[in-house]
């Protein structure tokens, strides 16, 4: 691997500026985007209530106001920390409890506003910078400059901003992956030291692995990548290093056994909560989406493939990433490139291959691929750091221009994102700001919905956006609601065709679509008698 000299002062200054900008945007307008479906479930878990309890109390056909939702979105005297953990055990075992325990204490101390709960993720995201610095120093050893370029890339990466402003566990997962990976490399580096030192370093790896597992289940794939790397670098011999690794990793997994047993015990619930990943889409859509996801590491203007710009810019970033991986493999020791390549490939393959072979959309969830994105950012950081220090002035100028373009892409993405009300990451709640605007415009609105599918979470999401004048009537099992006569501006949120037609027939209503996207429809209903009179 090439020896890289320390960065010039001007480049140090640029990296410090980018770091400051990255920190600023993580907290800027943090509450501007819709508090979406999944985030409302975070608040539900923090409250200690289960979704079934919420359904029993508010999906009962009674007319309620938006204030009725608050009980299930904040800590309360009726439920404690044990109830938070129990609600995850019984309804959402795919999400281990570490983040939710931290979030509950955070909200109890500072309040339960959207700004407060998202600021926890923003604060956690700041730990990425020392973590990536440590990992790069362990991986690239002689190069301080690679570490600093990596910090700059993380500071302006749009994908990091998305999860730094979301009340979910994924930004904590990134931090634990970085710490776990760095502690593994440190343990391997210090293996020749005295016994006490070895025990300490491998103990740190075991602890960070356990913390990562208790943050998100897919850490298991990262652990497999680590195992392949250790065994491969030991040339498939069961030497002292491999034995120490196996003992440390088994210790980490042993600490996670209580939650593994919970997942097994609630497997049907676990399987039910992940059924959406089995939705079938054409292979062409999968490939386009993969390329778009890769480009979002560096540029994210909330465009999909329906925008022509995506077809132009996405191949450029795919080629850039491909070359960075090639350059890393060609110019570094196998112990360096193998670590990065396994971090990219191993967590991604269990998601990509089933989608290709059996169908599904597991690999279309960017949050599941975050370990792979970290590996990609490591390769790009190494490429840029190396080329910016080239002996050829012309060569150096070219890569300074490329580095400048990467920086511009990140800054433009941050500027656009900071002003938006919604983003691609809000998925099934993407249109909620527009839906709320439509409902808020009328005088006496009533929103009717049931608890099927995505409706439960989206009703909670809308409660953050709708004005106090809006009334809700929520039912279970698509029963016919008893609609009051005085509420004339009636909306149906994502009803099934059968249920909507039953309501129309029962009340002699006529309904029209006033909003629709790929996930749900909003219907406005009117009394046929009123229409005839007009």
Describe the model.
By secondary structure, this protein is α/β, with parallel strands linked by helices. It folds into two domains: 21-29 and 124-264 and 292-420, no CATH class; 427-533. Helix content is 62%, strand content 6%. α16 crosses α17 (308-331) and α18 packs antiparallel against α19.
What key phrases describe this protein's structure?
534 residues; six-stranded mixed β-sheet; disordered N terminus; 6% strand
Reading the helices and strands in chain order gives HHHEHHHHHHHHHHHHHHHHHHEHEEHEEH
Please state how the strands of the largest beta sheet are arranged side by side.
1-3-2-4-6-5
- Work out the count of structural domains: 2
Shape: globular
Structural class, by secondary structure, is alpha/beta
Number of strands: 6
Low-pLDDT parts are: 1-6, 530-534
Strand content is 5-15%
Q: How many helices?
A: 24
Terminal CA distance reads: 80 Å
Kindly summarize this structure in a few lines:
With 534 residues, the protein is α/β, with parallel strands linked by helices.
Q: Can you lay out the helices and strands and say which pair or pack?
A:
Blueprint: H1 9-27, H2 37-47, H3 51-58, E1 63-64, H4 81-91, H5 98-110, H6 114-125, H7 128-140, H8 144-155, H9 158-164, H10 170-189, H11 195-213, H12 219-233, H13 240-255, H14 257-265, H15 267-273, H16 283-295, H17 308-331, H18 334-357, H19 370-387, H20 393-418, H21 432-440, E2 445-450, H22 455-463, E3 471-475, E4 489-493, H23 497-507, E5 509-516, E6 521-527, H24 528-533
Parallel strand pairs: 2-3, 2-4
Antiparallel strand pairs: 1-3, 4-6, 5-6
Helix pairs in contact: 1-8, 2-4, 2-5, 2-22, 6-9, 6-10, 7-8, 7-10, 8-19, 10-11, 11-13, 12-13, 12-18, 16-17, 17-19, 18-19
Subcellular location: Cell membrane
InterPro entries: LipidA_mod_glycosyltrf_83 (IPR050297), RgtA/B/C-like (IPR038731)
Main location: membrane
């Amino acid at each position: 691997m090439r020896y890289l000299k320390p960065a010039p002062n001007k480049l140090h200054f640029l990296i410090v500026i980018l770091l400051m900008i990255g920190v600023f945007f993580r907290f800027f307008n943090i509450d501007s985007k819709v508090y979406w479906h999944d985030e409302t479930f975070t608040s539900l878990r923090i409250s200690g209530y289960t979704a079934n309890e919420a359904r029993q109390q508010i999906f009962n056909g009674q007319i309620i106001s938006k204030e009725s939702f608050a009980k299930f979105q904040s800590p309360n005297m009726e439920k404690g920390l044990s109830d938070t953990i129990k609600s995850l055990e019984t309804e959402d075992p795919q999400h281990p409890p570490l983040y939710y325990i931290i979030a509950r204490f955070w909200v109890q101390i500072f309040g339960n506003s959207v700004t407060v709960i998202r600021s926890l993720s923003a604060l956690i995201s700041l730990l990425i910078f020392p973590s990536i610095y440590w990992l790069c120093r362990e991986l690239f050893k002689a190069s301080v400059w690679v570490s600093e370029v990596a910090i700059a890339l993380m500071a302006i990466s749009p994908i990091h901003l998305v999860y730094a402003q979301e009340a979910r566990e994924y930004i904590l997962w990134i931090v634990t992956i970085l710490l776990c990976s760095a502690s593994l490399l440190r343990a391997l580096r210090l293996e020749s030291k005295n016994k006490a030192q070895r025990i300490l370093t491998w103990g740190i790896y075991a602890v960070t692995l356990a913390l990562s597992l208790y943050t998100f289940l897919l850490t298991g794939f990262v652990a497999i990548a680590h195992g392949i790397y250790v065994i491969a670098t030991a040339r498939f011999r069961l030497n002292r290093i491999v034995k120490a690794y196996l003992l440390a990793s088994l210790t980490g997994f042993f600490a996670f056994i209580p939650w593994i047993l919970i997942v097994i015990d609630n497997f049907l619930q676990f399987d039910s909560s992940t059924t959406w990943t089995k939705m079938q889409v054409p292979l062409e859509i999968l490939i386009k989406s993969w390329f778009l996801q890769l480009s979002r590491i560096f540029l994210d203007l909330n465009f999909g493939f329906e925008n022509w710009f995506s077809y132009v810019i996405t191949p450029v970033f795919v080629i850039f990433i491909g070359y960075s991986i090639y350059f890393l493999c060609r110019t570094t020791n196998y112990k360096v490139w193998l670590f990065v390549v396994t971090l990219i490939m191993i967590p991604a393959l269990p998601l990509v291959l089933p989608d290709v072979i059996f169908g599904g959309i597991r690999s279309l969830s960017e949050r599941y691929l975050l370990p792979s994105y970290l590996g990609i950012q490591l390769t790009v950081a190494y490429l840029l750091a190396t080329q910016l220090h080239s002996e050829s002035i012309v060569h150096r100028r070219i890569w300074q221009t490329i580095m400048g373009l990467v920086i511009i892409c990140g800054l433009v993405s941050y500027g656009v994102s900071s002003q938006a009300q919604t983003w691609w990451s809000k998925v099934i709640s993407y249109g909620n700001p527009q839906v709320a605007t439509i409902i808020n415009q009328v005088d006496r609105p009533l929103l009717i919905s049931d608890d099927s599918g995505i409706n439960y979470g989206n009703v909670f999401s809308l409660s953050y956006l709708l004005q106090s004048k809006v009334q809700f009537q929520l039912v279970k099992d698509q029963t016919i609601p008893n609609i009051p006569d005085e509420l004339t501006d009636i909306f149906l949120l994502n009803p099934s065709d059968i249920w909507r037609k039953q309501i129309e027939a029962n009340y002699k209503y006529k309904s029209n679509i006033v909003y629709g996207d790929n996930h749900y429809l909003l219907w406005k209903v009117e009394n046929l008698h009123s229409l005839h009179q007009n």
